[in-house]
Amino acid sequence: MLDFLFDIFSKASGFWFILICILCIVVGMLLLIKGADFFVSSASTLAKKLGVSSLIIGLTVVSIGTSLPEASVSISSAIKGSNGLSIGNVVGSNIFNILVVLGCSCLFAPIIIDNGLKKRDLPILIGTGLILLIFTLWFSKTGNYDILRFEAIILLLLIVGYIILCIFTTKKKEDEEEEEKPKMKVWLCLIIIVVSGFAIACGGEFVTYGAKELAIKMGADEILVGLTIVAVGTSLPELVTSIMAAKKHENEIAVGNAVGSCIFNILFILGAAAAISPYYNINPDVIVDILVMLAIFVLITVLAFTLKNGIGRKTGIVFLLLYAAYLTYIILRNYCF
Length: 337
Known about the structure:
Blueprint: H1 3-9, H2 14-49, H3 54-66, H4 68-79, H5 83-108, H6 115-137, E1 146-147, H7 149-169, H8 186-218, H9 222-234, H10 236-247, H11 251-276, E2 280-281, H12 285-306, H13 313-335
Antiparallel strand pairs: 1-2
Helix pairs in contact: 2-3, 2-8, 4-5, 4-8, 4-11, 5-9, 5-10, 5-11, 5-12, 5-13, 6-11, 6-12, 7-11, 8-9, 10-11
């Protein structure tokens, strides 16, 4: 969609080209974050105007909307053949969501995970990680690590099943007050949805182009850029949301936001990217990152069931140190091993 612009950028050389790549990433991130913000708020307003319950809005529109930055980058990367950037973004975002998003949230207030999340979402979280690992290691046509199209379709069907499960197992609060109808006009909501959707698409292309070209110039692998710069940038909405929720002692929002985002990243985003890509090949190095991600999923689940007083500040600090150790490992892996 923006290839004509990228052709102009590619004519620059040296310092100016690197600066352009960095600007593409920054501009792309801004378009992704603000575009997703406007998309979610407008879509929620439109849904309320049409009489859709706030419960269903939260489980569908908002959940998918907060994952739009990751979706845009991963799908755009997959279309352009940058699978390393695509899956690196998904896996890196999931690791960031648990270790940094929850880790920072714990610094403000202990996070107590309720029974509903323990019994439903955390087992599903581990299950999605296992499914990704199985699909990556087995059923390959060429003997390489890849996700086949039929596996991608299974992931997309599973996210539909997860949304349906959430709707039927989550009960509305009995004392919930009737919400006032939003005042924004329907036509204005539709215009904002279209414009913000276009901004998200453009943001994804900017980030993909800037990150890929910067990786080539710096001698870094696409996977490293996806696991670090892109993953952190696209996860900023989850980080801000969870920290604000933790400050207000709204534990369910802080934890649910991080856990739900991880599930959506694997089932929805990776499923869509692999379904669109003609051949979704995966670098063997990513297998280690998937194993790290799965281990972190197991860790948060074990802590949820064993820490009766919630996940406190000390655990949050440990989470942040673990993320620093992981970053050190993947940087050394790229440049030294």
